[in-house]
Amino acid sequence: MNEYHSSANDAFSPSQERDRSGSMSLGNIPVSPHGPPSDHGGAAVDDITNKEQSPDVGTTSPTQTSGLSGANSEQLKQVSDVLSSEIGIVTLLNRLKQSIASAKEFALFLKKRSSLEEDHANGIRKLTRTTQEVMRRPDHRQGTFGSAYEAMASTHERMAENGIEFAKELHQMHDELMELAGVAERSRKSWKQNGLSAENKVAEMEQTMRKSKAKYDSLAEDYERVKTGESRQSGKMFGLKGHKSAQQHEGELLKKVQAADSTYHGHVQALQAEKAQLVSTTRPEAIRALQDSIKEIDAGISLQMQKFASFNERLLLSNGLSVSPIQGPGAQASSSQRSLRQAASSIDNEKDLNDYVTAQHRSVPPNSGEIKYERNPALNPPGSSGQHNPGGPVQQPAAIVQSPVSQTPPQGGFSGPQPLGPGSRTSTLGLGPITGITGGDSSFPPTDDPRPFSQPHNRSFSQGNMPVQQGAPAQQFPGRGSNQQAAGQRYGNGGSISSSGPPQLGALPFQPSGSPPQQPGPAQAPHEHSGSGVNLGQGPPGATRSPPPYGASSHPPPGPGPGPSGPSKPVFGLPLSRLYERDGLAVPMVVYQCIQAVDMYGLNVEGIYRQSGSMAHIQKLKNMFDTESSNPALDFRNPENFYHDVNSVTGLLKQFFRDLPDPLLTLEYHDSFIAAAKQEDDTLRRDSLHAIINSLPDPNYATLRALTLHLWRVMDNSHNNRMNCHNLAVIFGPTLMGTDPSTAIADAGWQIKAIDTILQNTLQIFDED
């Protein structure tokens, strides 16, 4: 008890005043919650001091309630009457129970408030440090804005420190209150057992005494009636063994009355002694102990309440001083002591701009002088080279040198997919621009370098955790400057493949073995003028031959320009090998356009590939691909072309794979895929599926690779679209592997397992180049 008294007097001495002149950050100065004591808190502390001087509760002296300041004499008398009665212990037990419950609830509040403050402070600190790191990068503004931003971040850092210290103090207060409540609860249980047992014993003895008195009074009344002769007529009621005389009956009653009197007298004496012991010793001790427990826990709660108020004041004051420090008159505010308003006002946008531009002065290129026209001597007539006057009028040559038509990129239409190879073991299947798409006016200009949908790719083989690639030198197709040659050097391995290697794409049965007929035209000019020495379609029969680029069929594409659309070319329902043989596209155009649309507009759409699009839109788009594949309206970079409904695009893509006569993963390898999916070891299952995928026909491999890498990008945005690996596998399992009515139910789970494994190991099976 004395420690609460001393701590309360030390912590809340009215003679001390709070010093608010300097920074009061909780992290820099010791916590000493000075402040004026509250009215109730002072009374609670006085109770603790005065309790040691109070006499026994059993007396009726008013000094026993001297701790109740401000109470009148009538109230003091009522308090004394209650505490000295038999309900005094029960009353104080109930009051102590209330104090314990209040202490626990206040402690729970402090714990939750501490947790909230700690989370808030840690969040501010993390946010501050993150934004400081980002703002210090060279791609953000510096100068006066950077300094002001640093000052703002430092202010928030100090506020976070204040919050953390505040949370620690609240947590400590919670622990102290819970400990205080535990002590009070143990004391209450002890005195409830000891004090109430004495009270109950006295009550039981009093009840026994009353019963003996009632019996004694009844026998005395009967004896009185026998003496007066009132009960002679009913004498037959006495003496069950025979008739007794009145004298005998009177003698027996006298003996009974004397015995009852002796018993009653003994009960009264025992009750008097026990009650005297209770009133003089047991009850006052219990009352004092319960009063001490009540005053102790009440004083502790009051103290913690005052500390809580003081800590709140200090937190707000410290945050206020962090935002706007108190500065003396005429003091110069340093960068670390500036207020938040001063830091924001110090931003000079004009100075920051000029400083940045000035810093780039050293990068200004030297002046190259005046630009002059210099005529090449080769254009001068023979013998007139020395007669040319640079300052005279320019004479046009007699003949105009025309550049090859093929050097001009075609206008109109839309650009197709970039090179995407199915990746044979020895050859790279290039995927060049889409040809055959003509038309005078198109709302989309051609794009020379669209999004890198994919690049030439060699099939790799999994060996443990290290993918090993077998590759062959990639064919280099000139055109569009030297970038084509650089790309060929980048993706070529420069190795040679023996004749015993796997078949190449050029050796597939659906690809013409001879050289394609060369038709004269501007589109052939780049190959005629190529310096790479590659002669497409020619060479020894056993030589490695790369297939035509994506979009390049066996015939040169027609030149750009308006003209009637070609005949109907069905796309849906044809095998991939037939589409490649006809169009020269390893990845069908409908697959490329659908993937492109989803990549641009559908990666963040919730439920992509799970939501169903409009069947009317899907049917219209399907008919357009079957009849007007060269229509510029099939460029899905414009969302108007698919009715702003990306779910219709996904439905069209799934419809294309469902309509394939032979599924994308082929019926030939269906049982192999199912057997590989049943492997329990993850690595063995992945490597088995990888080996089967490498055995797929080249158009199937290229299309599977493009689709799998696209689904990997969909999975990468699963936090937005809610489509994880398993969800996509459920959708594309039967779609890519086909369904056999006889085994559809048995194979459904293994189909999902196979596609799930392929998607999980996308970057191990396919190179993302």
TrEMBL record:
Q: Name one GO molecular function term.
A: GTPase activator activity
Pfam families registered for this protein in UniProt: FCH, RhoGAP
Annotated Polar residues bias: 1-15, 56-72, 455-468
One GO BP annotation is: signal transduction
Which residue stretches does the UniProt record annotate as biased composition, category Low complexity?
331-346, 426-436
The F-BAR domain, residue ranges: 77-352
Highest taxon of the lineage: Eukaryota
Keyword tags: Coiled coil, GTPase activation
Q: What is the name of this protein?
A: GTPase-activating beta-chimerin
